[in-house]
Specification:
The complex is a heterodimer of chains A (about 290) and B (about 170). With about 290 residues, chain A is α+β, with helices and mostly antiparallel strands. Chain A contains eleven helices and 14 strands. A five-stranded antiparallel beta sheet of chain A has the order 4-5-10-6-7. Chain B is elongated. Chain B is of the alpha+beta class. Chain B is about 30% helix and about 20% strand. Classes of the chains: A alpha+beta (about 290), B alpha+beta (about 170).
Amino acid sequence: MYLPDFEYYAPESIAETCQLLSQFGPRAKVIAGGSDIIVKMKKEVLAPEVLVSIKNLAELKKIEYVPGKGVVVGARVTHNDLYKSKLLAEKYASVSNAAGQMADNQVRNIGTLGGNISNAVPSADLPPIFIALNATVKLEGVNGERTMPLEDLFTGPGKTVLAQDEIITEVVIPDQKMTGSNYIKFGLRKSGALAVVGVAVAVEVENNVIKDARVALGAVAATPVRAKKTEEFLKGKTVTDELLAEAGVIASGECKPISDIRASAEYRTDLVRVFTKRALRKAIDEGHV
Amino acid sequence: MSNFIVDKSGIKRYLVSVKINGSEYTRVVKANTLLVNFLREDLDLIGTKKGCELGDCGCCTVMLDGKPVNSCLVLAVDVDGREVTTIEGIANGEELDIVQEKFIEHAAYQCGYCTSGMIISSRALLNENPSPTEHEVREAIAGNLCRCTGYVNIVEAVLAAAEAEKK
């Protein structure tokens, strides 16, 4: 398979990147790793006239801890960079484990965090765990930058609030009171499968009492969604198996999955019940895993 | 900004300098040239195979700066200044790499079509992790599909190569 012709730019700065995106408008697309856009171009889903490669934006390739801010992850960081990061293994192994469950080794070596987020696929593996950890996302465009909670970025399948001239530059996991977090994905194979359901949780537990909880569900709605009733239900309660089972039931009532080739809506709903319970137990007992 | 020339028909062609299997190559490519086609058609390195061409099967796996990637998903112009290792660069002249030797010993291929990618993924694993578990080997080649389903022998060959390399 060969790609159609397109104009190619490899700008040296974020400002220049946004300028090009603004100049070419909807005719242009950003290419980072390529694992998504090249496939879409081969399948003729997309036919951009201009590709803007961000390969030269070295500043987007960092994972670092900034005191007072949190763990800052650049948009060009690959899934394997996340999976193999020592910093994340220490602080939020739940994030590295989620990244390690994505696709296969070859794709994890090119697919980026910014790409996984900006494609806004409802089954994407990274958004739920980042949302559970209350992450923010920074967008930069020709008129400056803006930062928002990651969950506010998504507006529908494949749709985000990103303007034509904007790119995602970084995601920040703020310092946490949460004592544990976990992401559980169910795919139809052990490797290389899209999530049929993905459940991410983060909890703050003190003396066996849940002080705070965040639950984010993937692949069961048009965008990744918070299970806010479940979160409210858990707050202030003492941890028991019955409590977590009931939380699972509430979460399954909060999602609105579709039936497709991978699973029925009923099956997905039941998976949410089971995985919410299991992910909560993991996060409560084992911390950020 | 990348260096380019404009040909007679007005099409831009980009200068790409890339180190492949230890040698420096400089070529001009169109922006839409994929790495796999650059290797096979421009450089005649046809050991890298084309399978699904959508990043699922792993036949076209090469190492990019030491890491296995699907060369069907990478633009040639994007590898300017980087380092690529193909199956042709795994052996040391006439002397086969230990992974290749163990693939032969364990009959770890049948039709052979996935073998280039399998060996690249396996070599990259052992470079990073000299003592992998069986599970880690299976994880490393999860993106390489063998339709003859010879996985058992492949996994045995990689584990044997790791064992032999430790000695």
